[in-house]
Structure formats: C-alpha cells, structure tokens
Amino acid sequence: MSGRIRKTASKGTMRVAGLMSGTSADGVDVAIIDIAGRKVQLRAFEMFPYPPALRREVLRLCRPESARLDNICHYNFVLGEVFADSVIKLCSNSRISLSSIDVIGSHGQTIYHSPRGRRYGRRAIRSTLQIGEPSVIAQHTGVTTVADFRPRDIAAGGEGAPLVPYADYVLFGHNRLTRAVQNIGGIANVTFIPAGSKSDEIVAFDTGPGNMVIDGIIRLASDGKRNFDRDGNMAARGVVDNKLLGEMRKHPFLRRRPPKSTGREQFGAVFADQIYRRAVKKRLSDTDVVATVTALTARSITQAYRRFLPAMPDEMILCGGGAHNRTLVEMLRSELEDVKILSTGDFGISVDAKEAVSFAILAWATVKGIPNNVPGATGAEQPVVLGKIIYP
C-alpha cells in the first residue's frame, strides 16, 4: 500500500463519491457520503441524464451487432469526461468542496457482461467490460479514483456480479431481522442478509429482469416517444395475460440456480422485441403487454425468493427505479403477504441513490484493503479486494 493510500485509509471518517450508470443507460448517478465503519451518511445525490444522442450511442455499444471498436474506444473517454463533470457539478450544486472528497468509486457503464464465458482452449473464459475511463476521472477531478470492480472477482473464479452485497451488508445488516435488499434497476438483484450474519453468510444473485423489459416494451409501443412506465400507470390499466406470462417464465435464466448474473445479453432489446411480436400476434393491447411484463418482473423476483433463498425474509428493502413503479410494488405485496416491504428511503438513502452509495462504499473498502466481493454471491473462489486505484 502506497504512502498516499495509507494516509487516506487511516482516516476515521472518509468522504467518498460514488458513480453509477446502470443497464438502462439513463445517465450518471452521483452520491457523496461520509463513512466511518458501518456508519454511513449521505451528503448529496443527483442524477445527471445522458443527452439523448449520447444515450443512443451507449445503447448501440451494448449490442454486438451495432458496436464498433472505434466507438468503444471513443466513448470510453467521452464517458470518462461525463463522469468527471458529474462529480464536479454535484459538488458545486451541493456546496461541497471537491477537495474535501478523499476517493471516487466509479462502476462505469457496462457495455458487455459474459458471466457464463466463452470457450478458449479447453475451458470457458468469463469476461466483462465497463467503460468510462477512470484515468480521465482522476485527472479532471484531482481525486484518487477506484474503478473497474468486476474483473478482479472474475479473475478469482466469480461471475463479477452482483457487486453490491458487501455494501448492502454494511448498510442493512441487522442482529434480529433477516432482510432481503431488492434492487430493481434494468436488471433486478437481491441480497439476502440473515439476522446476525457475517458477510460470508450473505446470499445474492440477479433474479432476472427489472425495468429493462418493461422499458423496452414501452419504447416499442410508443414508437420511441417514451422510455418507461411512469409510476406503473400504464400497467395499472392493463390485464395480465397469464399464457404469455407463463411462456416468459420458462426463460432458462429464471430456472438456473445461483450464483448467477445477467444483463442486456438475455433481457435486452432482442428479448423485448420478441415478446412484443408475440403480443401483437395474440392481439393484446399495449396496456395488457405492459401489465404482463411488469408481472414478469414481480413473479421472477418472488419465484427466486421461494426457490433459491434459504428462508423468506422478515423485510424486503426496495431500491432502484422500479421502487417508483406502484403497480410493480403492489404486485410484490400481493405475492409476499408475510414480508414487510420497505424502501431504502426509510433508512435515509433514496431509492435512486442506493447504487451510487454502494460504489462509494466499495471504493472505501478497496482503499482500506478490505475484501469487498461476496464469494457466496458471485461464485468466486475466495474473498478479494475489488477495483483498480488510479492516482490523480
């Protein structure tokens, strides 16, 4: 450990900025926290949307048929600029001195994730790729930056996802209550924290689609004029088609046992297009299709709880954009009547800020030299320290 990092790591309280852009590629979430052990205080949060043209380009990079090597190279540095500017803007908007930030933790923008791997020689090699060049972030902000968290877990035999269980444990571990922290972003993932557990007792995995399929159907139904179902209003007007829902629930990923992770490669634009075509043939209304894919998200979550969790939790703590979807939340309540459903907002962290806060916590642990993957979640052979540290 270098002298510079040792000095930062020795601080009783560290101020850390976390950066996150998820599979929906809507923009950059930035959170600034003060952290001392398991005491975390959110100081500021803001989401900075990608300009529409940039979002279109990022989404093209996520599809093998439209991604080009020169564009991957170019937008890696473009997003580095965007991420750095977002930290600077949040500091200005919240009147927090940029120089007071000790570390920045950046997840980057995932453009491809291959947790099952491809054959090379006699074995399958897993891989993942996040862009948003951290060297640019460190250079423009003057702050030590930790980034590229997934590859170290993959090198240790894991899937490189889910990454946030360690942060969930720091934030929501409880001596008497068993909790499931349920993120519903583009993809939905759960962290199961038994009462009084240690971090190596956590179970975590991707449950399946979160908002990704819903958003894809909304774009198709509106000819690209809308990107999401605000508050679940469209789904609320529709009727779930149980036959189509049953077909979707047969997806192989939903039946796989954890550890497991997924992304656009399985539930992206191609999947949404296939579902929409099937719905058109069945002459379903657009509201019925949206209601049906919303039910897919709810049922895949509750199905995963019943099949793969060691026990049902006392509490489900929701976060991510899907927590705003009232229809989806009501579907979860009706499926899990004995589980108390809360949100991270009940604990002082908005549902939108939670992921960015998580990467701030992961960066804090990296600088401290604390292993911050959870092998029980990713399938890694051992606990490791995630991320690459870049000095300004």
Brief characterization of the structure:
The chain contains 16 helices and 12 strands. The chain has 392 residues and is α/β, with parallel strands linked by helices.
Rg is: 20 Å
| Structural class by sheet pairing and helices | alpha/beta
Please give the CATH architecture of the largest domain.
2-Layer Sandwich
Helix segment count?
16
- The coarse silhouette is globular
CATH superfamily of the largest domain, by name, is ATPase, nucleotide binding domain
Q: What is the arithmetic mean of pLDDT? A: 95
Oligomer: single chain
Strand segment count: 12
Q: How do the SSEs run, as a string of H and E?
A: HEEEHHEEHEHHEEEHHHHHHHEHEHHE
- Identify low-pLDDT runs: none
| Total number of distinct structural domains | 2
- In CATH, what is the class of the largest domain? Alpha Beta
Q: Sheet with the most strands?
A: 7 strands, mixed
N-end to C-end Cα span: 16 Å
Helicity level, as a percent range? 40-55%
Strand content range = 15-25%
CATH topology of the largest domain: Nucleotidyltransferase, domain 5
Written account of the structure:
With 392 residues, the protein is an alpha/beta fold. The chain has 2 domains: 196 residues, 2-Layer Sandwich (Nucleotidyltransferase, domain 5), CATH 3.30.420.40; 182 residues, ATPase, nucleotide binding domain (Nucleotidyltransferase, domain 5), CATH 3.30.420.40. The protein has 16 helices and 12 strands. Strands 1, 2, 3, 4, 5, 6 and 12 form a 7-stranded mixed sheet that branches. A 5-stranded mixed sheet has the order 9-8-7-10-11. Strand 10, helix 14 and strand 11 form a beta-alpha-beta unit. Helix 3 runs parallel beside helix 4, helix 6 packs across helix 15 and helix 7 packs across helix 12. The longest helix has 26 residues. It is globular. The model has no long low-confidence stretch (mean pLDDT 95).
